[in-house]
Design goal:
Blueprint lengths: L2 E5 L4 E2 L5 E2 L18 E5 H4 L12 E5 L4 H7 L5 E6 L7 H6 L4 E3 L2 H7 L5 E4 L6 H9 L4 E4 L7 H14 L3 E3 L7 H11 L6 E7 L24 H5 L25 H18 L6 E6 L2 E9 L2 E9 L9 E7 L8 E6 L21 E6 L2 E6 L5 E3 L1 H7 L12 H9 L9 H20 L3 E4 L4 E2 L20
Parallel strand pairs: 5-6, 5-8, 6-7, 8-9, 9-10, 11-16
Antiparallel strand pairs: 1-4, 2-3, 11-17, 12-15, 12-20, 13-14, 15-16, 17-18, 18-19, 20-21
């Protein structure tokens, strides 16, 4: 008869004062907490039959930031034990708390990591500005990490997280769900088949932002919602009073907290571009952005004078932008220029596209010397014109396929193969996004030295490579 050895874990107490079951890797069975000091040998049929997954095979997962995207991440990890939940906003996280009533609850991830020694993996679904500090704290404790994209808010953070994760050897994954999709792999198949020849230009566009950008800091000071710890929400960001233009969701457009439309969406496309074209680091980047104009009224000698004035909004990303990156040749592959469009802007329609075919709301256009390939962020690729695609037939399936974005990471946590959007790759596409944002914030053409992590022609731009953290929040 098969037997399972089950050892107990200590009972822990969350900040809400409630008791929770122990969550060591070999967790005690329900009702067995009193056996924390010893172990019990149980026959397999007691545990649920031949298909039962033993506690020792189950990850104990902690979620940090579980009220929005983090809630979705956790739902996709329910094959494992969702053991601990941490969020600074109890009201926003309430539905997730209801979904996992047995999970221990915390507000401060630092307290959580200090107390919950049995956590195997941490899922981070917080705003961009807190990714690095949470991830680094978990990495230092040897925890596997799943993190929202972009990996971090600054370049220095991205490099630090990537290099430290590599040293620890833990399993990592950045939340680019389409990275393991069939559509993404099919783009690689078509390009690697030579169907469109050498690609020298790529256009990527998004319908973001779908939140306000081009804003000035509000002057009023509304009361923070009950259950929100605003100081913890700010974390490493400079202090400012609470306002609903920051939380929830709309923090994305504020440079202190988010990375704008580019940081929010680019990784969903860049992973396809970088993999298909075997890109590494760009060597230069420049941009242009929409300018907001306000009407100014002034008292003149003969009455009110009205004039227009450009409105500078340095704290937020613009309402629309275009950004260009230049990548060097890679062996026999030619240099590539990649261009990003957001705020409703799109590239010119390719000559080969059918007159009645619209460009997707979010998409990519690969232009080669033998033709063009069009794809959405999640839809399958189309060789232009489509009649040519039908005549050629599908290319050989040569690109790696995925078992599933979340299952890849779970398997990696248990010693299996590395996930497709692990931090080495996730950090690479994050850094491309972040240098684009710096070009946007400076408005200047920048030359980038990835090895030195610096802009070699613009010392002022380097102040955005690493930004100071609020006291007590350094990583």
């Amino acid at each position: 008869m098969s037997q399972v050895i089950s050892t107990g874990g200590s009972t822990t107490s969350g900040q809400n004062g409630g008791k929770a079951r122990g969550i060591s890797r070999r967790a005690a069975l329900p009702g067995m907490a009193s056996l924390a000091a010893g172990f019990t040998i149980l026959p397999r049929h007691v545990l649920g039959g031949p298909g039962f997954k033993a506690p020792s095979d189950t990850l104990n997962i902690a979620g940090v930031g579980v009220g929005a995207m983090g809630a979705g991440y956790l739902r996709n990890c329910e094959s494992e034990n969702i053991a601990v939940l941490c969020d600074v906003d109890e009201g926003f996280a309430a539905k997730t708390y209801e979904r996992y009533p047995k999970a221990v609850r915390y507000r401060d991830f630092r307290v959580m990591l200090d107390k919950e020694k049995g956590i195997d993996a941490v899922v981070v679904g917080t705003p961009d500005h807190t990714h690095a500090v949470i991830v680094m704290a978990a990495l230092r404790r040897g925890k596997h990490i799943y993190c929202a994209k972009p990996l971090t808010r600054t370049l220095a953070e991205s490099r630090m997280v990537t290099e430290f994760a590599r040293k620890t050897g833990v399993a990592t994954q950045m939340s680019v769900q389409s990275c393991g999709s069939e559509a993404a792999a099919a783009v690689c198949d078509w390009i690697w088949s030579g169907a469109i020849g050498n690609v020298r230009d790529v256009h990527v566009w998004s319908n973001r932002p779908i939140w306000p950008q081009g804003l000035l800091r509000p002057a009023d000071r509304p009361q923070a919602p009950a259950g929100l710890d605003w100081d913890l929400w700010l974390g490493p960001a400079p202090y400012r009073p609470y306002h609903h233009v920051y939380h929830p969701f709309v923090w994305r457009g504020w440079w202190d907290f988010g990375t704008g439309a580019l940081g929010d969406m680019a990784c969903h496309a860049f992973h396809i571009v970088f993999r298909a074209l075997q890109l590494e680091h760009a060597v230069s980047v420049h941009s242009s952005a929409a300018i907001l104009v306000e009407l100014v009224e002034e008292q003149g000698p003969t009455g009110i004078v009205r004039r227009s004035k450009a409105l500078r909004t340095p704290e937020t990303a613009p309402v629309a932008s275009v950004i260009h990156w230049d990548f060097p040749a890679r062996g026999a592959l030619p240099p590539v220029r990649m261009t990003w469009y957001d705020g409703g802007l799109k590239p010119r329609r390719p000559a080969e596209i059918e007159p009645n075919r619209p460009l997707p709301a979010e998409g990519m256009l690969f232009e080669g010397d033998k033709g063009s390939l069009l794809t959405g962020f999640s839809g399958g690729p189309i060789l232009l014109p489509e009649e040519r695609m039908k005549a050629m037939g599908p290319p050989l399936r040569v690109a790696q396929r995925s078992s599933g974005h979340y299952s890849e990471w779970i398997v990696a946590c248990k010693g299996g193969p590395t996930a497709m959007c692990e931090f080495n790759f996730g950090g690479l596409i994050t850094e491309a996004s972040l240098i684009g944002n710096i070009a946007l914030r400076t408005g200047r053409a920048l030359r980038w030295d990835a090895a030195k992590l610096e802009f070699i022609n613009d010392p002022e731009a380097n102040r955005y490579v690493s930004e100071p953290s609020r006291e007590g929040w350094s990583i």
